[in-house]
Amino acid sequence: MFWKKLFEKNQKSDKDLQLIKFILIRFGYRPKNLELFKEALTHKSYSNLSNDPSNERLEYLGDAILDAVIANFLFHKFPDEDEGYLTKVKSKLVSRKTLAELGEAMEIATVLKYNKGRSINLSTLQGNALEALIGAVYLDAGFDKAKSIIEQYIFRNYIDLSKTLEEEIDFKSKLFIWAQKNKLELEFEIISESNEGSHWVYTSQVIINRLAYGRGTGTSKKAAEQEAAKETLVLMGEI
């Protein structure tokens, strides 16, 4: 009788097995506390009907974890970029639009619980659930595991960094993408700066594989680099 009860206790329902399989395939992780992941996949429109906890708290937690991991990744990926550039790229990677696209690509809707009788933006729900799932992983296995899954599974399999950067309108980003695609070393050097009384004027030089290319001037280093990048792209026939 004891073994029978133990066996029945450890048996998983078909829905539980489907969820475990989903997490294994999409995250490379087997949950320890499956209830966390069920909660992560329960939208409030469903929880209002079932009295199950919604994923809003886990979404909040996952958002913070994702933000920290992406910030750390970009900090090391682009050691020469300033805060403004890193912030701009990070905001694209963690935007509602990007998360919705990720959730859709990962087919989160197949395991998501929501009120299908209501008019709801399913893409947004999937993006929110993705953050909640990250929160669930964090609570289930800690920050290092969550970081590893974001970088090794989500980031590697579902995010095209080059495409994301291509959507930036500034010339410096476009030049960086071009250099990355062609496996070239790219640097920006400030070769002169002068005080013009009411403002400073900077001159920037693009260096590619130790060779000088376009130059640009501006009243800030960033503006000078933009002009230098633009001139280089013109020289390369990219614009």
Would you summarize the structure shown here?
This is Ribonuclease 3. The chain has 239 residues and is mainly alpha-helical.
What does this structure look like?
It is found in: Cytoplasm. Its EC number is 3.1.26.3. Residues 170-238 form the DRBM domain. Belongs to the ribonuclease III family. The protein has 239 residues and is mostly helical. The chain has two domains: 9-159, Ribonuclease iii, N-terminal Endonuclease Domain, Chain A, CATH 1.10.1520; 171-235, 2-Layer Sandwich (Double Stranded RNA Binding Domain). 62% of the residues lie in helices and 11% in strands. The protein is built from twelve helices and three strands. β1 and β2 (200-208) form a beta hairpin. α5 packs across α6 (83-93), α5 (56-77) packs across α9 (143-158) and α8 (122-141) packs antiparallel against α9 (143-158). The longest helix has 22 residues, at 56-77.
**What oligomeric state best describes the polypeptide chains here?**
single chain
Please state roughly what percent of the residues sit in beta strands, choosing from under 5%, 5-15%, 15-25%, 25-35%, 35-45% or over 45%: 5-15%
What is the 3D form?
elongated
Helix-strand makeup class = mainly alpha
Amino-to-carboxy terminus distance: 77 Å
Question: Can you tell me the CATH architecture of the largest domain?
Answer: Orthogonal Bundle
Describe the largest sheet: 3 strands, antiparallel
Evaluate the radius of gyration.
Answer: 24 Å
Poorly predicted residue ranges: 1-9
> CATH homologous superfamily of the largest domain - what is it?
Ribonuclease III domain
Please list the strands of the largest sheet in the order they lie side by side. Answer: 1-2-3
Annotation, overall tally of beta strands = 3
State the CATH class of the largest domain. Answer: Mainly Alpha
Instruction: Give the total of domains.
Output: 2
Q: Which whole number gives the mean pLDDT?
A: 87
Number of helices: 12
CATH topology of the largest domain: Ribonuclease iii, N-terminal Endonuclease Domain, Chain A
* SSE sequence, one letter per element: HHHHHHHHHHHEEEH
Proportion of helical residues: 55-70%
